[in-house]
Each structure stands twice: as structure tokens, then as C-alpha cells.
Amino acid sequence: MLFKQQALLRQKLFVLGSLAIGSVLYLVARVGTLDRLQPICPIESRLPPPEPEQIPLRTLQFKRGLLHELRKGNATKEQIRLHNLVQQLPRAIIIGVRKGGTRALLEMLNLHPAVVKASQEIHFFDNDQNYARGIDWYREKMPFSFPHQITIEKSPAYFITEEVPERIFKMNSSIKLLIIVREPTTRAVSDYTQVLEGKERKNKTYHKFEKLAIDSNTCEVNTKYKAVRTSIYTKHLERWLKYFPVEQFHIVDGDRLIADPLPELQLVERFLNLPSRISQYNLYFNATRGFYCLRFNIVFNKCLAGSKGRIHPDVDPLVVTKLQRFFHPFNQKFYQITGRTFNWP
């Protein structure tokens, strides 16, 4: 009897020992496998690489509310200090072209959480009186922003004013410069239309576009007419290239910005080294206005002023053709300098 009990006990111990040894061997094998796998496919390697110099966009959620209060003058000095807000000189300027779409471009770029815009045209560099007030005066005209945001202002007169390139160069020789252009003849007519509307509002008369654009003595294009002169883009750009390399300029297609804005805005994001944040969600077509409007979030939308998209007066087709032929060689040179080609006649 005792012999049978001892035999049964030895059998149980053998089974338990076998199970324990098996478990140890399994764990050793499992750990060995993990050790072999880890260098081949570490967890970190399966994660997407972080974006370089990523802007802390979560912090920028304060932007819409707090910066709006600052613009209204409602924010306190304590809020400014607490959030480390500053008034920065612009790191990018929309320098032109008048009636090319500068306001639309500025408002659309302001959709980006890393961009803060100067609401008004400052006219610092093209106005001698303003320029004499100094750079601190200019800085005080800029909106409050977080240090990692970039401030952008726009003054279309900069592009055609002779003194401006040198003055901006003295402020910041590495600044990024945005130029938005439209088909030159269309832009000239748009320029005329804005002036005409202003005259009519004051009950003043104004010459027809044809009379201003064509010299009645020579029957040639009147280059003394400002609307025509502004559309000779290459003449103005050559003056800027005396101070800035062509790599610091980005040309925006104003006609495309009206018809299909997102691709143009994505090009600007890359030029400004910004992470891509503007999406189709932010842009929706307003059939009543005939233009794209802006969607900042689920509750805040914005359309451009009603003065945008004025109806142009009818212009003699012979005059339009004459202007298009006049601008053609200047356009070709503009394409060559900038590296961007447009389907202009």
C-alpha cells in the first residue's frame, strides 16, 4: 500500500515538473523570438516621422477668439503677457498687383492657423510721410500674434512704387514676396471700373476706357495711363530683382484663385514653409455672389465685400485686341523671368 502511494506521488511530481520545464522553455523561446524581432521592426519605425518644425496648432486654437478681442481692443495687458503675444514685423508681404486679387489672397491665407493678417493696407513703404515715422510705427500697425505665427500685410501700391524695393530690403533682405496677377487687359479694365465707380458715387463724369487706354494722337496704346502701365508686370518686377533674388518671389494666378482657389493656396503654403492646413472644407462657392467664400469653422463663415466682382463695362473689341498684342511681348518676358506660364492671349 505504501509502495503504491509513493509511486503515485512520484508520477504527479514528474507531470508537474514536466509542465514547469515546458513553461520555462516556452518563455525562453518567446523572449528569444521577441529579441530577434525587435531590431527588425521596432515600434518607432512603424510610426510616421514627425513633421519638421511642427507649429503647435493646438495652441493656435486661441487665435480666432483672443486675437479678435485684441483687434477690437478688448483684451487686457495680462492676457497679452500670459499668452506671450507680440506685434511682429511681417515675414511675407503681398506687394501687388492692384486689382489682381490681393484682398482675396490675404483673406484666404488668413484661414491658416499659423497666419495673422494686417486688416488694413498700411502703406508704410510707398508713403513718404508714413515711412518717415519709422519702423516702430510700422510694427505697431501689425496685429498681435503668437511668436510662431507669421504676419502678412498687403499694399498693392508697393509693386509699382520705385522707392519700395530698397526700403523693404533694408527692413528684411530675406522677406518672402507675393505677387498676384491677372490677364493684363482684364486687370486694366478692372482697374478702370473701380475708379469709374468712385467717380459716379461722387456724381462726377469720367472718360470711357477706350479714350484713356488709346492715345488719340497716335492711335497707339497710351502707356502714360496708369491702368495700362501697372499691367506691364515685367517692367516693375525688374526693379524688384535689383534687390531680391527671384526665389524670394511667388507668383499667384489671380484668375485661377477666383475659379479654383485651393491649388493656388497650397502652392503659397509651400512657398511660406507652412504645414498644409487649408482644405476644401474652408472654401465654398456662393452662387449668389459668384465667388468662393471662407469657412473658418462650423459657426464662422466670411464672404468678401460686395464691391468685389464688379461688372465691367463693355469695351471695344478692337481696343481689347490692341491691348492684348501690346502686352504680349511683356508677358513672354514675365514668364521667362518667373518660370510660370499663363494662358494669356
TrEMBL record:
3'-phosphoadenylyl sulfate binds at residues 99-103, 182, 190, 292, 308-312. One of its GO terms (molecular function) is [heparan sulfate]-glucosamine 3-sulfotransferase activity. Residues 90-334 form the Sulfotransferase domain. Keywords: Disulfide bond, Glycoprotein, Golgi apparatus, Membrane, Signal-anchor, Transferase, Transmembrane, Transmembrane helix. It comes from the Eukaryota. It catalyses: alpha-D-glucosaminyl-[heparan sulfate](n) + 3'-phosphoadenylyl sulfate = 3-sulfo-alpha-D-glucosaminyl-[heparan sulfate](n) + adenosine 3',5'-bisphosphate + H(+). It is a single-pass type II membrane protein. It is found in: Golgi apparatus membrane. One of its GO terms (cellular component) is Golgi membrane. Gene3D superfamilies: P-loop containing nucleotide triphosphate hydrolases. Disulfide bonds join 293-303. The chain crosses the membrane at residues 12-29. Its EC number is 2.8.2.-. The active site is at residue 99. InterPro entries: NST/OST, P-loop_NTPase, Sulfotransferase_dom. PANTHER family: HEPARAN SULFATE GLUCOSAMINE 3-O-SULFOTRANSFERASE 5, HEPARAN SULFATE SULFOTRANSFERASE. Belongs to the sulfotransferase 1 family. This is Sulfotransferase. The lineage of its organism: Eukaryota, Metazoa, Chordata, Craniata, Vertebrata.
